[in-house]
Amino acid sequence: MKLHHSLLATAALLACLGAQAQTVSITPAVSGVNVGDTFSVDIGATGFPDKIFGGGYNLAFDPTMLQLDGISFPANWEFLTSTGLLDAASGTVSDIFFNTFAAPIKGDFLTASLKFRAIGVGTSAITLSESVSFPFGDEFANAVPVTFVGASVTAAIPEPISLALLLGGLGCVTWVARRRQA
Length: 182
Known about the structure:
By secondary structure, the chain is an alpha+beta fold. It has two helices and twelve strands; from the N terminus they run H-E-E-E-E-E-E-E-E-E-E-E-E-H. The protein has a single domain, classed as Sandwich (Immunoglobulin-like), CATH 2.60.40.680.
C-alpha cells in the first residue's frame, strides 16, 4: 500500500513539474551592439502543452542605454493586441498583451518582436515579468503559470569609426600627392 501511495505522489509531483514548464523568454538572450545601432529581439513562448488564447507581460530595461522604438505582433494574434503603457523615463512597459479568437496556439510560438536602439555604453538587462491584468490563459479560461526569462544587451562605441578615419586620412594624403604631381 505504501508503494502505491509513493507512486501516486511521484506521479503527482511530475505532473506539477510538467505544468510549470511553460516559459516566455527573450531571444537572443545576450547581444552585443554598437551605440547608435538598431536591433530586434523576439519574445517567444515554449513548452505550452495546452492551447493558449493569449497573455501578457511587463517589460523593463535601462533607459540610459536603450530606447524602445517599437513592438510588433505576429498575425496569429488577430483578436486584440496592445503595446502596453510605455514609461520611457523609467524604461518600463506595463501590460503588453495579445489575444486570438480564431486559432488558439500550443507548443512553441512567437508572442512579439521588440525593436530597440542602443543609445548608451554599457550592459542593460531586458526583463520580463507577469502582467497581473493579462495572465496567460488556456482555452478553458484558466490562468497558466509561466516562467519569464530576460536577456542582456551590451552596447559599445563602434571601433569601425577609427578605421574609417584612418582610411579617410590616407585617401586625403593620396589625393594631395596626386594633385602635386599634376
